[in-house]
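re: ur question from the group chat, yeah i did fold both. here u go
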Amino acid sequence: MPRETCPECGKSFKRIGSHWARGSCHYPEIPTYLREILIGCLMGDGSVPKTNDGSHGLFRLPMVNKQFLEWFDHEMGILSTGVVLKKTAAELAQNNRESGFSPNARAENYHDMYTVISRSHPFMRSLRRWYRSGEKRFPESLSLTPRIAKMWYVCDGCLDVQEHGEPRASIRIRHRDDRQDFLLNLFEEVGLSPSYGRETIRFGVEETRSFLDWMVNPPPGFEYKWVLDSRERYDRLKAQAYGEARAF
């Protein structure tokens, strides 16, 4: 197990989280930009699960987009335990065959799944309030910033790039959140006016441009979700993000 250096006392530890938990040194402060990254990811693929010992201090982010997770790991710094292979494409296909979810699942149609798990931290524990109802639910106090929305979009968003017509962005509401007005108001507060239907927030052509411009630059691994001017470039960047060998 690699040793980590505590930024407060300068000593190295195999289990630096235990060092902080014992009160020997303070937990590292999480800056605003990183809090926004975590909140945006929690709106999508991220979670703060309850562990076997009853603690709630770990942030977990699983994803097939390894390039993005490597960026996320870098941004997390000492709070991250690294990018780890969770399940191979073959294992995922086998699981879906055995569960009956997809009886004909084949490994070539899947990607390896990776995950990043944080070290325990009071801020992660504070995010457990999202689960008070028994499932993840966006708190009433939530508001969007470009960075928060960006992380939500890369996790749950889609850019519909068709052969004809201009691209349109959307965000899937995976947790069956029934607060349509609340969700739309998150965007109205920042000057955007998407529509809502079938558990999906949808942006029109012009709204898509405004939405992507408002969020500014995409994070590594999700550049393709910002491509509005070229189906070829969209396909190429998406293939690169998921390690698919394609010739263009």
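okk and heres the other one u asked abt
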Amino acid sequence: MTPDHGHEDWARAAFARSRAAYPSSQAPVGRILTAARARRKRRRVAAVASAACVLGLGLAVPLLKPAPGAVDPARRPSPAASSPLTPTPDTVGVRVAEGTTGGHRWSVALEFHRTLPKGYTPPTLPDGTTAPGTSLLCQRMYIGGVRIDHQGGPWADCQPVTGTRDPQAVGGTGLWGLHDKGLRGSRLMVSTPEADVAYGVVTLSDGTRMKAATASVPGTGYRAWAAPIPDGQTITAVDQYDTHHHRLGHDTNWR
């Protein structure tokens, strides 16, 4: 039988287009190799660059509970949104903050897996070894029901950690979005601060100041605060304070 080369060429081209549309999920090795502050500073650009896709939906996880003092407390709570997988008894989490921005519901949660979940494969480091860690910490962020970085698979924006108080997972800040590498549209500012930070204040270009309380994953040293950045607004300053309202940090590098 004579091969149908025209059909083969069509199928090959279709496969190439499909593969290009769904890039492979590569683990964020860069975030694991260096200390938390340096790693997260670099990730300001790298993380938002990976968050350009807008497909996918989040599912409810009952383990996540609203944190007191979250941003936009006057709004009605949005549906709980965290891991797209069913949690196990070894999973605990906290709703960091939620609200509405640009007409879209948003939420941020931290999710801690005491043991590495079934189906999760730790990333391989450049030297050929496996990234260390006995547990997994995930940052789940949604805008309009879409999980940021969902195109990377169920473990996108997760990092292996050692136990409940790994210092490598503390001390960073990132700006996350769904459009144009996070440079436009509604975005989320998320900080994973040290233990002495009680809240953050984000000042926008129009003078708006948003206070966001820190929420902690129960029984761990992992914590975060989050605030929405409306479309068209830029950040002029990010300040962090302790429980006595003493300013601990002042960052103006987000213009």
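fwiw on the second one: Confidence is low (pLDDT under 50) at residues 10-84. The radius of gyration is 19 Å. idk if thats what u expected
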